[in-house]
């Protein structure tokens, strides 16, 4: 095991881990052909605080991501992009959450491609949410791992006060420290910071059943509720724990099972709790929707304005389109971060 990596088994009733031979066999089959290159080592600039082995040290930037077989290639690209554009890459600690990939397999992939990475692997029990998930418009949105972000405050050590959560289908082209700083001391009452989009049709995220029920729709009556994408968030874990937001999100999911109040996966419970209450972040930090819609995944252009993070949310993933010789123009911006050994990126 690499000296900077560790495995955390969260032994609480909610997050108890069980491993079966069936899961291990399926995972081995899904990942057997993957062969990733080793990324270069990235060093702190002279102005950085000293890198510290203690993950509770104040200068550490914490990044949380989920990992699974289907998105592992995207995750590796995202990690590389974070390190490559960071001024202080040695001060970043990664927290990876997985359900289906065993520790030994995942540790080998990460440690081989990023030998100097400081990271912890948390194995998340998907049975914690299986009974709470309602079907949505695309089956990939129903993956239990999409709901792991609800449990970050339980999974991560209590000394971790703030974390940047990132999806696996994105790359950064800017310093993640700037994103992390968007939830600072001046946001004393904010639990989450994220780009918000008030031009989106907010009502479409909830069903007529929700809007026609005054006891439910009243929740938005005193706030300017806008859509935000939960694939890029900065979360104050101290305030999250104090507000017991994991329980509150679970309660919305339980209500959804009794009476369908929303349509789109893991996003609406976050909107119910936080829409209109977040610290807004510049849109440059989530140029989202590059994967097209959730049905066809057609090519899309960038939104107007500067770019710090490109996010292939939607059905179309750049590695899938590249391998299928049907890459979209913007997929060329993801390709330089692809560490898959056998890929001839965009050559065709």
Automatic annotation (TrEMBL):
It is a single-pass type II membrane protein. It is found in: Endomembrane system. Its EC number is 2.4.1.-. Residues 1-22 form the signal peptide. Coiled coil: none annotated. The keyword Glycosyltransferase applies. One of its GO terms (cellular component) is Golgi apparatus. Pfam families: Glyco_transf_8. Pathway: Glycan metabolism; pectin biosynthesis. GO terms for molecular function: glycosyltransferase activity. Belongs to the glycosyltransferase 8 family. This is Hexosyltransferase. It comes from Mikania micrantha (bitter vine).
